[in-house]
Design a protein that fits this description.
With 463 residues, the protein is α+β, with helices and mostly antiparallel strands. It is 33% helix and 25% strand. The strands form two sheets. The chain has a 16-stranded antiparallel beta sheet, sandwiched between helices. Strands 9-15 form a two-stranded antiparallel sheet. A hairpin with a 6-residue loop joins strand 11 and strand 12.
Length: 463
Amino acid sequence: MRARTILGAAAVTAAAVLLAGCGGSSGAGSGSSLGAGAAVAPADSVAFVAVNTDTSSSQWQAVDALLQKFPGHDQLFTQLQQQLQQKTGLSWSDDVEPALGSELDLVVLPAASGAKPELVGLVQPGDGAKLAALLQKVDVKSGETLVTAQTGGWTAIARTQAALDAVTGASSHLADDNTYQDATSKLSGDSIATVYANGAEAQQLLGSLGTTLPTPATGAAQLQWVSAGVVAESGGVKVDGYVRTQGGQSPGQPYASALVSKIPSGALAVADFDASAHVMSLPKSLSAALGGETALYVTAGAPMPAVTLVTHPSDPQAAAAALDKAFASLGAAAGSSSGAGSPLGGLGAILANIHLYHDVVGDALVASTSQQAISDYEGGGQKLADDGTFKDATSAASMPAETNGFVYVNLKAALPLVEGLVSMVGKGLPTGTQANLAALQTVTGYATATGDELHFSLFVQIG
């Protein structure tokens, strides 16, 4: 299928660039569950990425069905083929597709102190001769010779012999590692791609490069591992991920949002979170001004959309003063960026003249760039909880009633406003952008925490 190979071409383009530039690879697997290359990847791997390259699989059939909803998908396919040819000198149909199996795996190995990490590719080619010819063309393009070896039924491809030896000589492997098993046990085996990173190995690697991850001593959690998977569904694309930490500040308890029953229906974008559980990650100037369940949302307005903040601080008046001060600084910065030749163009002048209004409604502080937006919040009109688009989006994303925070964007309604804002900067979106992106409906993301494990999910609704 022509359309179904669009994202396949994009994935292989990225792999070919890695091969030509830094010795990463291409790959495939024979197992029914994505990530079969973990059986030969070393147990101490810093990261492991598996990509489904079987364009006849159910996942790519789902991708193809989604792409058919975009008017410009044929043009996109042609552009990807051209970029593959220009960047790598490779032809998708002649060089790449025949050499692929069903899975492309990339292994990030630990690095010696001060050295850059090495990538090793794992592949089970559909045509060994085509893979050899592909690697030869990559060698010519990159000016260096990649090394290969057979291990456990896979072809390992690397830039250096040392990296290759680290894989072929491994005495223990990711597939048998408890950390890897814990991290990937909840990921769908039927995915477009999966990603795993070992927190301890990543910390050691970053330390060798002169930087570190946060530690419990700084008030943040120590990362244990991260995993995520991308799955194509009939109504869109979902990213599900998990993060395991140790120590640090508690992410708080899941809660049922009370503000969705107060935010006006028709909101273009909403970010809702418990500020009491996130103060460590907020700027100091804001952490004192926020409290309890907090929502930042955007509604339509003229000439600019209205931005409204609802929060529950312990001292609403002091919080209002802090917000006024922060907003004044933003206005001054926008004013200095207005005028001809400035990055913001005419938009800067508009931003500089926007005022911040606020009111105390019950135990909540409501601050907005529009007085009408505050009136709409206080009024008895239809609310977000009754908004059909919001209800459909959260249902499609399988968002539970209680979360540790969520984000929601009505892409279909927001795109025309984005085009208007871009024009104020003196720019313009490419012709046909709205028509080509009309299939994008909403984006919904949420997080839930259980003990030291955080689950996050992001769903892009396409229809």
